[in-house]
Design a protein that fits this description.
Strands 3-2-1-4-5-6-7-8 form an eight-stranded mixed beta sheet, sandwiched between helices. By secondary structure, it is an alpha/beta fold. Helices cover about 50% and strands about 15% of the residues. Helix 8 crosses helix 11 and helix 8 crosses helix 12.
């Protein structure tokens, strides 16, 4: 198939390369043309404008967006939709909020354009291992995309999840689960590090061991093995953990539907707390404990 890839960040670039290596034709567009030209070495057809991109595609066209969630997606969809025709397919493969999908699908449907929301997991390793993909939209559009999806995903690695928004909704929950798993691993290794045996532990070897038949084995442990091999006690990192949105949305969805999601919520809060090394709240707690119980506090030098 011939497909246009809009957005050549880490994910978009690797997805385009994987498609090219599996025999597909890729028309490449990026805000900065340098990246587009770089992909030409892999066999892509670089274009400088959206108009050139649309002209390079056979009808019915397939345009796949890999852009950061938010206004930039709406801006590009508006520009591209003005150039597309009835029966073309527009895929948002970024981490958009499923509420945005409902709005976009309704608007594009009025033009006869099929909108597909694609939750994509696999990170920077997807080029080698393939991408797990969760798709929402019209089933017929999903069926038309199958040659592309089969190339991007490992065997059985893509699924039609339901109507518009379903793909990104499932990806949102997926990322909420990921938050909880990562937090559980972090707490476990934190207990190990605080133990009397800490100086004897090789965390890379432990990560490797737990991936050999253990009930907690996972790809995350494979990554931890590599992380600890490169930095055995993580001395080169700051304790700052960002969140990209989906965890917040998953927790908000739990609140909206009255679902108790304690692990996801606490995991999200821990990410927030990681960014506050001099937390006002923690200082206040220390002051209160001192006030009511005379508990010791650690004061700043000179105070």
């Amino acid at each position: 198939m011939k497909i246009a890839m809009v957005g050549l960040g880490k994910m978009g670039m690797n997805m385009a390369i994987r498609l090219l290596r599996d025999g597909h034709q890729v028309v490449a567009y990026n805000r900065t043309f340098d990246k587009t030209q770089g992909l030409a070495a892999e066999g892509a057809e670089p274009v400088e404008t959206l108009e050139q991109m649309v002209r390079a595609l056979p009808r019915p066209r397939v345009v796949w967006l890999m852009l950061p969630a938010g206004n930039v997606v709406d801006e590009q969809i508006e520009k591209i939709a003005a150039l597309l025709e009835s029966d073309d397919i527009l895929v948002d493969g970024g981490n958009s909020n499923y509420h945005d999908d409902l709005r976009r699908a309704e608007k594009l449907s009025a033009q006869g354009i099929h909108y597909v929301d694609a939750g994509v997991s696999g990170g920077i390793w997807g080029l080698e291992k393939g991408y797990c993909m969760m798709l929402g939209g019209e089933r017929q559009a999903y069926q038309r995309l199958k040659p592309i999806l089969d190339s991007l995903a490992p065997p059985d690695g893509h699924l039609y999840c339901g109507p518009s928004g379903a793909g990104h909704f499932v990806k949102m929950v997926h990322n909420g689960i990921e938050y909880g798993m990562m937090q559980a691993y972090a707490e476990g290794f934190d207990i190990l590090q605080a133990s009397p045996y800490a100086d004897r532990f090789d965390y890379a070897e432990l990560s490797k061991l737990w991936n050999r038949g253990s009930v907690i084995r996972s790809w995350l442990l494979e990554l931890l093995e590599q992380v600890f091999t490169n930095d055995p006690r993580l001395e080169n990192l700051e304790a700052w953990v960002e969140d990209s949105g989906e965890g917040r949305w998953a927790v908000q969805q739990a609140l909206d539907t009255g679902v108790p999601a304690e692990v996801m919520t606490i995991s999200l809060m821990r990410r927030f707390s990681s960014r506050q090394p001099k937390s006002f709240a923690d200082r206040m707690l220390a002051a209160l404990r001192n006030a009511f119980g005379g508990h010791a506090v650690v004061r700043k030098q000179g105070q």
